[in-house]
UniProtKB/TrEMBL annotation:
It comes from the Bacteria. It comes from Tianweitania aestuarii. Residues 74-96 are annotated as: Disordered. This is Helix-turn-helix domain-containing protein.
Length: 96
């Protein structure tokens, strides 16, 4: 689905990009970044189409989606806990 069609579906559902992202547990910036490529992934397109149709039929999609227990995603990258950006250098053992 193209990004413009995605935005039309969100508008039909009465959602902004921020509201849609919060509804499905995503970062709003991650959703709006798809504007650069001109299209959205299939799973987001399907969710937007279903939510738009449910909204036009007068169904409460917010309550249904709220029932789903979302799990937090693991952070990607090599960063250690408490350290931003990872550690590109291997720690040296200088104790002799």
């Amino acid at each position: 689905m193209g990004y413009e069609g995605f935005l039309r579906d969100l508008a039909r559902a009465g959602l902004s990009i921020r509201a849609f992202a919060e509804l499905i547990g995503m970062n709003p910036n991650s959703v709006s970044n798809y504007a650069r490529s001109g299209g959205v992934p299939d799973h987001l397109a399907i969710i937007a189409a279903l939510v738009a149709e449910m909204g036009t039929q007068g169904l409460d999609f917010r309550g249904i989606i709220a029932k789903v227990e979302l799990t937090a995603k693991k952070p990607r990258g090599r960063a250690r806990a408490g350290q931003f950006g990872g550690d590109p250098q291997v720690p040296l053992d200088l104790d002799q």
